[in-house]
UniProtKB/TrEMBL annotation:
Keywords, ordered alphabetically: Cobalamin biosynthesis, Glutamine amidotransferase
GO terms under biological process: cobalamin biosynthetic process
Record organism: Pseudonocardia autotrophica
Active site residues of this protein: C342 (nucleophile), H431
Gene: cobQ
Single GO molecular function: catalytic activity
InterPro entries to which the protein is assigned, alphabetical: Class_I_gatase-like (IPR029062), CobQ/CobB/MinD/ParA_Nub-bd_dom (IPR002586), CobQ_GATase1 (IPR033949), CobQ_N (IPR047045), CobQ_synth (IPR004459), GATase_3 (IPR011698), P-loop_NTPase (IPR027417)
Pathway: Cofactor biosynthesis; adenosylcobalamin biosynthesis
Protein name as annotated: Cobyric acid synthase
């Protein structure tokens, strides 16, 4: 029987990567399992990990993951504003799924008033369609220097009268100070919306933490609604593609089914994008996927993957200056496999030209690595798509996000006419190919053969979709077992209590 619940809540965090995305996904999945109609929402995201939605737009990958947890299809309203950094100072702005210019950190401030209306419209549509909307903040609400133009944290909460829960990552250390300090620097009207705290990634006996939680309650008047334990099995669909990487290794590799491992090295480009393409490979038993940044790590690998890039020309320059380009060429020269995806695919070709100045000075032309007989030119407009086809006898789906267009190819296609298949060097513009189980098995079998890993055996029972669902359920289990869900429901239904005390330090004191 479905639970009768309606309302909304904002999950903020003391820092980036505090666990906001995971907590939102867990709450969404917990509500979905109880029959609640629920949707995630992130007003403004900054990430180069994105997906193309069925309604034809581009949103942050974390919101697509959260939509999966809700049992709904992702759409552009879930993430109406997406910033995709192309350098340390500039980002592409994606508004309701479509690229809408470049901004600097300073110039972006002049667009936030108009974007706030876009955000409000998207949230309104979601609240009309779903009973509960679980919103995710961006960065930290304690970034008080950005408060006047805030789109996703306390400014967003104030405009929409949303209760706020603040998540802190205890694995970083100092979490009680982070939670107290985050509240303390907020002005009184913002503090009034903060209903409580959540602690994430706890290891050990929670009884040792309880005295600190009691003091935090005394100091702030806010309860801690949950202490979520550290969970080893959570690593798919991370908003920061490298946040779940330990010692360079992606995921938790299961032992091989055969006598040998298949070792895959993904080059960690400075502006890497959609690195989550490698996650489906890492789900397979006996496949060890690691990120690498220097040439010596390629010398002992079986497969090299060149992933997507938000700045293909710049990252190609880094490949050369770092020595990685020579290492990739040497790897391919002895017949070992190289796989390029999107921007990485473009780098493997002969030339890249930028007639419209999408990434560089208009008219820029650079040499690629020359491992594929391929010429690329950047279009002014970004190509977005969700194609379907067959490859190697397997049905495949994927998504495309790129400015680069193939203007000439002398190699056979990988998927029909799309992509390139030159024996041990392969490439495609399609993201998400490896999420197709049948194609992934055929791909790994071929890569292992090219790498002379005769003892590697691909598993025939790995389901990437099932693994993604398992991780969503694991997040929901953490919420159900380790949060005060009755209080969580009360906050969603009724908002923050009206009598919460104000901390009289910092901005709170100056604003009184």
């Amino acid at each position: 029987m479905a639970v009768d619940l309606s309302g909304a809540v904002l999950i903020a965090g003391t820092t980036s990567d505090a666990g906001k995305s995971a907590v939102v996904a867990g709450i969404c999945r917990w509500l979905h399992r109880r029959g609640v109609s629920v949707a995630p929402f992130k007003a403004q995201n900054m990430s180069n990990n994105s997906v193309v939605t069925p309604d034809g737009g581009e949103i942050g990958r974390a919101q697509a993951m959260q939509a999966h947890a809700c049992g709904i299809a992702p759409g552009v309203d879930l993430n109406p504003v997406l910033l995709k950094p192309g350098s340390d100072r500039t980002s592409q702005v994606v508004v309701r799924g479509r690229a809408d210019g470049q901004v600097s950190a300073l110039s972006y401030r002049h667009r936030t008033a108009a974007l706030a209306e876009v955000v409000a419209d998207s949230l309104s549509r979601l609240r009309e369609r779903y009973d509960v909307v679980v919103c995710e903040g961006a960065g930290s609400p304690a970034e008080i220097n950005l408060r006047p133009t805030d789109l996703a944290n306390m400014g967003f909460a104030r405009r929409n009268d949303l209760p706020v829960l603040v998540v802190g990552d205890i694995d970083r250390g100092g979490v009680l100070a982070h939670l107290f300090g985050t509240l303390g620097v907020l002005e009184p009207a913002d503090q009034a919306l903060v209903a409580g705290f959540v602690i994430n990634k706890f290891r050990g006996d929670v009884r040792l933490l309880e005295p600190g939680l009691e003091q935090l309650l005394t100091l702030t008047g806010r309860p801690t609604l949950g202490v979520l334990p550290f969970a080893e099995g959570l690593w798919l669909d991370a908003e920061d593609s490298l946040s779940a990487v330990a010692d360079g290794v992606l995921g938790r590799p299961a032992p091989p089914r055969g006598a040998q491992w298949l070792r895959v090295s993904v080059i960690r480009l400075p502006r890497i994008s959609n690195a989550t393409d490698a996650e489906a490979l890492a789900c397979e038993p006996g496949v060890a996927v690691r990120y690498v940044t220097e040439p010596s790590r390629i010398a002992d690998t079986d497969v090299v993957v060149l992933p997507g890039s938000k700045s293909t020309v710049s990252d190609l320059g880094w490949l050369r200056s770092s020595g990685m380009a020579d290492a990739v060429a040497a790897h391919a020269a002895v017949g070992r496999p190289v796989l390029g995806i999107c921007g990485g695919y473009q780098m493997l070709g002969r030339t890249i030209t930028d007639p419209h100045g999408v990434e560089a000075t208009p008219g820029t032309a650079v040499d690629g690595l020359g491992l594929l007989d391929l010429e690329i030119a950047f279009d002014r407009d970004k190509h977005l798509g969700t194609p379907t086809s067959t490859a190697w006898g397997q049905p495949v789906t994927g998504y495309e996000i790129h400015h680069g267009r193939v203007v000439r190819s002398g190699d056979p296609g990988l998927i029909g006419d799309e992509g390139s298949d030159r024996g041990n060097v392969l490439g495609t513009h399609w993201h998400g190919l490896a999420e197709n189980d049948g194609f992934r098995r055929a791909l790994l079998t071929r890569l292992a053969a090219e790498a002379d890993r005769d003892g590697f055996r691909v598993a025939d029972d790995t389901s990437f979709a099932a693994e993604r669902t398992r991780q969503a359920d694991l997040l929901a289990d953490l919420v159900e077992q380790h949060m005060d869900t009755s209080s969580l429901e009360h906050v969603i239904r009724h908002g923050a209590p009206a009598d919460l005390p104000v901390l009289t330090s910092g901005l709170a004191a100056s604003a009184r």
